[in-house]
Amino acid sequence: MTATLLPGQVEKYPLSIRILHWVRAVLILGLIAAGWYMTGRAEDDPTAGVFYPNHKQFGVLAWLLALVHITLRWRYRAVLPHAPAALKSWEKWLSHALHRLIIALTLLTPLLGYAMSSSIPDGDGVPFFLVSHIPEILPKSDDAFAVFQALHRYAAYLLLACIALHVCGAAKHRMQDRNGETDVLPRML
Predict the structure, then answer these.
(1) Does residue 87 contact residue 96 with C-beta atoms inside 8 Å?
(2) Could you tell me the pTM of the whole model?
(3) Count of other CB atoms within 10 angstroms of residue 183
(4) Quick check: 131 and 60 in contact, CB under 8 A?
(5) Eight-state DSSP code of residue 46
(6) Alpha-carbon distances of 38 from 57, 113, 118, rounded to whole Å
C-alpha cells in the first residue's frame, strides 16, 4: 500500500534504509581506502598493527550491515519506491542489476576477506570489537590464502567499480535528464 503523493512531493525510501545506505557507503569506501593504504605499506610498517585488525572488524561490520540491509529491503518491499516511469527500459534493467550486484558484493567481499584471514598459516585471526576473535573454520594453507587474497582484492575492485557506476547514474539523472523526472537522489536523502 503506497501513499498518494502531492504535487512536488518525492517518494522516499523508509528512513531506516536511507540511514543504512549512507552509513554503508561511508563504511565500504573507508574499507576500500584502508585496504589500499595498508597493502601498500611494508610488512614491518607500524601502522599495520592498527590498520589490519580494524579493517577486519569493520569488514565484519559491513557484512552484518549487508544482512540488515537485505532484511529491511524484504520487510519494506511493498513500500519501496519503484523506478521512475520516465526511465528507459535498459536503464531500469541496468539499475536493478547493479543494485543486486552491489548487494551481493557487500556480502561476498567480507566473506572472502574472512576466508583469507582464516586460512593464513601465521595469521592472528579476525577480531570483532568486543569479541576477541571470530572462530576460524578454514584450514591453514598458503595456497588457499593466496587464492582468497586475490578473490578478496578483485571483489573489492569490482565493488568499487559498481559503486562508481551507481554514483555516475544518480549524477546523470540528477544533472542531465530533463524535468527531473528521473532524479532518484531525493529518494535517498
Answers:
(1) no
(2) 0.87
(3) 16
(4) no
(5) T
(6) 15, 14, 18
Number of other CB atoms surrounding residue 35 within 10 Å: 21
Burial class (CB in 10 A: 0-12, 13-18, 19+), 19: exposed
Grid coordinates given for 170:
544518480
Amino acid at 28: I
Beta carbons within 8 Å of 77's beta carbon, 6+ residues apart: none
pLDDT value at residue 1: 45
Over pLDDT 70: what percentage of the chain? Answer: 94
What are the phi and psi torsion angles at 128 (to 5°)? -145, 90
From CA 25, how far away is CA 62, in angstroms rounded?
Answer: 10
Q: Say yes or no to pLDDT of 188 above 80.
A: yes
Q: Are 114 and 108 in contact (CB under 8 A)?
A: no
